[in-house]
Amino acid sequence: MRISQLAERTGVPVHTLKYYLREGVLPAGRATSRTSAEYGEEHVDRVRLVRALVEHGGVPVAAVRRIVGALDAPPPSRHELLGTAHSTLAGEDPGAAAPAEVVELLRGLGWCTWEQGPFVAELGRAVEAARAAGAPLTPEALRRYAEAMFAVAEVDVELALGAPSPEEAMRAVVVGTVMVDPVLLALRRVAQEAASTARA
Amino acid sequence: MRISQLAERTGVPVHTLKYYLREGVLPAGRATSRTSAEYGEEHVDRVRLVRALVEHGGVPVAAVRRIVGALDAPPPSRHELLGTAHSTLAGEDPGAAAPAEVVELLRGLGWCTWEQGPFVAELGRAVEAARAAGAPLTPEALRRYAEAMFAVAEVDVELALGAPSPEEAMRAVVVGTVMVDPVLLALRRVAQEAASTARA
């Protein structure tokens, strides 16, 4: 199909598709003349993914470029998959040292994690910011939040392991992580109502 | 203290403090002359809160205005607290109809929630967007995510109930919800590593 038909199929305007092409998040079509190209079903899927990441996931275009790059070239072994997916999600962040409280929390939970990893540093910054704003985030509350998020992560890992191919497993981790974040935050708010009613 | 001292104490530049004053998220100081005003400790706290919400929580200034308004005038009964906090967080969103799958999920979980509420509609949109992007979000995965977020919400509700005053309870719900979101998302990523290692 031509670019105008790709626009019609996906509901994304031609000028946005040209922007995606320039930014390298949508692969070029098969050139049919000096000024036109042919697009296929894989382009329809890719446009839908990019639009979802940008519009609903709030992912910046540079991060989308890393994500689609990882989807196009997943690591051959499932063993390396999560590491590659996490590097993709974390970007260039070198990972600052995690505060002692966070390191202690992870050890206390018995989690085998890389304490120098970018998300441990991010966790430290987020805890500090929440406390600075006056959130009553006690160490006990933090531990219970961590246990609940472990249950979330177990579902994440099972969905990735159940994927039929490395490509699908990579998609499950990367897209599943970014796009399920808003689902979890909406569930939290709805669950607050339910938990509050249960106590009343 | 003068505005320059407030800037020094909080590390927020004077021009940003003036912007906060203009936007109504920082109350005016006590006027000491036609051009200068005196600020107190309550202004230091407020500036720290506003900066944390804007910089770390990514909250738009219009939403910050609603949040500080709710903190300044919490409802007299704890019964109304969560409703007021949620209206504050949801803003003007009229709340579209939730998709049948989400309504069925909530009923299946036995959650007493307002099915027309803004967060149920948000949940429906987030589920749809995640699936459109290719996230493998099965109904069973969604149910398990919901159960994990109920455990999170129970901690949220306990922290609010344990607050010594309606003001503190309001702060626990509103600030705790917005500022703990990034903590939960970082925990999810760190937990993925731990859950994946546990399975290897």
TrEMBL record, chains A, B:
Protein's UniProt keywords contain DNA-binding: yes
Keyword terms, alphabetized: DNA-binding
InterPro entries reported for this sequence: DNA-bd_dom_put_sf, MerR-type_HTH_dom, MerR_fam
SUPFAM superfamilies hit by this protein: Putative DNA-binding domain (SSF46955)
Highest taxon in the source lineage: Bacteria
Domain HTH merR-type as annotated: residue spans: 1-70
PANTHER family registered for this protein in UniProt: HTH-TYPE TRANSCRIPTIONAL REGULATOR ADHR, REDOX-CYCLING DRUG-SENSING TRANSCRIPTIONAL ACTIVATOR SOXR
This protein's name: MerR family transcriptional regulator
Species this chain originates from: Phycicoccus sonneratiae
